[in-house]
Amino acid sequence: MRQIRLNAFDMACVGHIQHGMWTHPRDRSTGYNSLEHWVSLARMLERGLFDGLFMADILGVYDVLEDTPAPSLRNAVQIPLIDPLALVPAMGHGTTHLGFGVTCNLAYEPPFLFARRMATLDHLTNGRIGWNIVTGYLDSAARAMGLSEQMAHDDRYDLADEYMEAVYKLWEGGWQDDAVIRDRATGIYTDPAKVRAIHHHGKQFNIDAVPLWEPSPQRTPVLYQAGASDRGRIFAARHAECVFVNGSTRANVRRIVDDLRARSAPRPMQAFISIAVVTGRTEKEARDMMEDYRRHASVEGALAHAASSLGIDFARFGLDEPVRVTGSQAIQSNVEAITASIGPDWTTRQLMDRFILGSRQPPIVGSPEQVADALMSWMEEADIDGFNLSRTVMPECLETFIALVVPVLQARGVFKTAYEPGSYRQKLFGNGDRLPTGHPADTARWRPFSIMPAVFDHRR
Question: How far apart are CA 366 and CA 167, in angstroms?
């Protein structure tokens, strides 16, 4: 029986997906800027046998609604926000098995610097780092980086394809696996014949450099990708090991997942959707908790988030006027998911009716058995592998899920009772630490001297 994969879905901020929950008296998300908050979270997730902590990130403010960041600032909509990569070493030190999938925008950082940072985290976590590859969707982020606006949607993916080619070379091709010998007798730490410079000369990037880092456990981090537009699926099928699909209808998700798997075949691909769960010991307890949470939901915060994610200023439309989307450079798959869920000619009022807990994602509410039924139904009908569980009131939403739902899933044989050994990739796929043969990274791997001569061959 296929095992359910579970990631906690979070962000290094106060308000992530369900907006307004920070106002609940039991919520502790305002501790986002302390290491204790994140180490405690990571340890709790490991006790619950979660596969990973999936960290979202953005580089700009949500300022599309009313053409101002004020609604986002009032409601803590992903602002204030700190750097998630800085949190990983502490969480890695506090755990043994939990993986960390971190969102990093490739549009604004040179490949060499980013490749070194991820290799460092892979070393420090002993092979438990993953990368959610994004190209960005906010004009405010482009302006923060000194540009007038972001690149066009499809052009960003063209940039991303070349970026991936460059980082694959840096992670996979610079050092032979046994280059580091640490021979105290001879005083040789690294064999120069087994290290070579990387050369990349493309449309966007030029690199002539020796990677400074020795090979990390996975070399290339586990690769996540969330693009479900036509261009995004081409990119995901080429590069991603795990895809994050917007949860609309089961039929629509299955259509997207089937397409992605067909494009990536024969290479395996795991598919995740985002969910929120409100559960209690009984259905009544769960529904009472839901009503308690709902009193704290922020419609304005949810609109501010949706406006920037969709590239639509809802203030330009009446509540019952069909929302017309033309020329958006934001997340196109979000628009497609809403249209699939609500239907064509959807209105702002219809969207707001879905803001049950301050997001456009209706939660699963019920007893542990009912929640388990819903998760298993999603897996069967949409052919997904797992879920990114977004927070509501922290930390009790995860504490109750781990205490109540996880044992039901385990009793049904669909969730692990212990971690398997190995790296993040090994735990997810069971085929070793490295990307499989046939992945584009394979073309960048170290080849024998007869094919690719070493730059620092001491025998010359």
Answer: 44
pLDDT value, residue 326: 58
Nearest CA to 239 out of 122, 118, 133 is that of 133
Work out whether the CA dihedral 24, 26, 32, 34 comes out positive or negative: positive
pLDDT score, position 340? 66
> What's the rounded Cα separation, in Å, for the pair 216 and 167?
14
Query: What's the distance, CA 266 to chain centroid?
Result: 23
Mean pLDDT of the chain: 92
Closest CA to 27 of 8, 14, 9: 14
Short-list 113, 92, 112, CA closest to 102: 92
Distance CA 339, CA 361 (A): 14
The predicted structure's pLDDT at residue 390: 97
Q: Is the pLDDT of residue 453 over 50?
A: no
Query: Which residues have CB under 8 Å from 265's CB, separation 6+?
Result: none
Which two structure tokens, joined as six digits, stand for 217?
A: 């456990």
Cβ neighbours around 259 below 10 Å, total? 15
**CA distance linking residue 278 with residue 281, whole number of Å:** 11
First to last CA, the chain: 56
Instruction: Enumerate the domain spans of the chain.
Output: 5-444
Do 46 and 95 contact (CB within 8 A), yes or no? yes
Q: What is the CATH number of domain 5-444?
A: 3.20.20.30
Rounded Cα distance, 202 and 163, in Å: 9
Query: What is the C-alpha separation between 307 and 310, in angstroms, rounded?
Result: 5
Query: Are the C-beta atoms of residues 272 and 387 closer than 8 Å to each other?
Result: yes
CA–CA gap between residue 381 and residue 271 (Å, rounded) = 13
pLDDT value of position 449:
52
Asked whether the beta carbons of 350 and 342 are under 8 A apart, the reply is yes
CA distance 51 to 428: 8
* Residue 396 three-state SS: helix
Q: What are phi and psi of 115, to 5 degrees?
A: -60, -40
CA distance 180 to 182: 6
Secondary structure E strands in 303-414: 364-366, 386-390
- Sort residue 20 into left (φ over 0), alpha (ψ -120 to 50) or beta: left
Tell me how far CA of residue 359 lies from CA of 264, 292, 350, 388, in angstroms: 32, 16, 13, 15
